[in-house]
């Protein structure tokens, strides 16, 4: 590791100002992705602006039909929060299975979304649940947030302060994980909303995406059989040492069926 400045502001605007003043600085949330790349010298920020102690980003609120999770809430807090477990049990279940215990105690929802790892779990939930990403300056719909591999709609100095989730009828997540990294080889989040079904798939492609043919089938018949009857094209899916594109295509409807089983297992 090399020398860098460390700042820990207590307000979101102060954090943004600190980053804007230094073009080589980076926000530090959980640090689960940033710090390993710094150790390998793949990233060399001159300063880290720690946002994990900003009180306004460390809250979870349930207000009517909306659940709001602060950007600095770690995975373990999301998994154990009573409001999340009651309002969106599928999201709490997802958070409880991210990485290992150490990662869940440090990694944050805002950091995960800003990094947009193509195999991360949260992007699938945010996309399927039609969430809104709230930053220090605007609100971004999930469909407009994820651009490509490690690429989002965020400006370089823009900070995710919260994520707003509308409540759903049913939601569940299942993943086939890499045994070493615990990242999703393929992960599928299924959400039954009042106006239809949305599905978010992670790990299978360069970026999280919605399989429209699967959504159409499940909107007509929200069942395991319906999910598994869909054929997903292997075109544009990842093909690497861990799994072929064809295998990932096969996994998507299988995992969608298992996600529905999980969704149905939660109390309505």
UniProtKB/TrEMBL annotation:
* Ranges where the FAD-binding PCMH-type domain occurs: 1-170
Pfam families attached to this UniProt entry = FAD_binding_5 (PF00941)
What keywords does the record list, in alphabetical order? Answer: FAD, Flavoprotein, Oxidoreductase
Q: Please list the coiled coil stretches.
A: none
Please name the InterPro entries in this protein's record. CO_DH_flav_C, CO_DH_flav_C_dom_sf, Diverse_Substr_Oxidored, FAD-bd_PCMH, FAD-bd_PCMH-like_sf, FAD-bd_PCMH_sub1, FAD-bd_PCMH_sub2, Mopterin_DH_FAD-bd
> PROSITE patterns given for it?
FAD_PCMH
SUPFAM superfamilies documented for this protein: CO dehydrogenase flavoprotein C-terminal domain-like, FAD-binding/transporter-associated domain-like
List the SMART domains hit by this protein, alphabetically.
CO_deh_flav_C (SM01092)
Under Gene Ontology molecular function, one entry of this record is: oxidoreductase activity
Going by the entry's taxonomy, the superkingdom of the source organism is recorded as Bacteria
Q: Which PANTHER family match?
A: XANTHINE DEHYDROGENASE SUBUNIT C-RELATED
- The molecule here is called Molybdopterin dehydrogenase
- Species lineage: Bacteria, Pseudomonadati, Pseudomonadota, Betaproteobacteria, Burkholderiales
């Amino acid at each position: 590791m090399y020398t860098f400045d460390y700042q820990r502001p207590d307000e979101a605007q102060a954090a943004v100002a600190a980053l804007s003043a230094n073009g080589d600085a980076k926000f530090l949330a959980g640090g689960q992705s940033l710090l390993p790349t710094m150790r390998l010298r793949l990233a060399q920020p001159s300063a880290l602006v720690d946002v994990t102690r900003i009180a306004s980003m460390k809250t979870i609120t349930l207000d009517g039909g909306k659940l709001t999770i602060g950007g600095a809430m770690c995975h373990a807090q999301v998994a154990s929060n009573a409001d999340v477990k009651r309002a969106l049990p599928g999201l709490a279940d997802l958070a409880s299975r991210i990485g290992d215990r150490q990662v869940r105690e440090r990694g944050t929802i805002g950091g995960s979304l800003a990094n947009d790892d193509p195999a991360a779990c949260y992007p699938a939930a945010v996309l399927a649940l039609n969430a809104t990403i709230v930053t220090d300056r605007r609100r971004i719909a999930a469909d407009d947030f994820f651009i490509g591999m490690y690429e989002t709609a965020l400006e370089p100095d823009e900070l995710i302060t919260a994520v707003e989730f509308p409540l759903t009828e049913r939601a569940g997540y299942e993943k086939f994980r890499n045994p070493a990294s615990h990242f999703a080889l393929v992960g599928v989040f299924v959400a039954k909303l009042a106006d239809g079904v949305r599905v978010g798939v992670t790990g299978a492609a360069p970026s999280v995406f919605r399989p429209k043919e699967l959504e159409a089938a499940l909107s007509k018949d929200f069942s395991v059989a319906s999910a598994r009857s869909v054929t997903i094209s292997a075109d544009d899916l990842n093909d690497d040492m861990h799994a072929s594109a064809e295998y990932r295509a096969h996994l998507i409807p299988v995992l969608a069926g298992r996600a529905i089983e999980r969704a149905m297992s939660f109390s309505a």
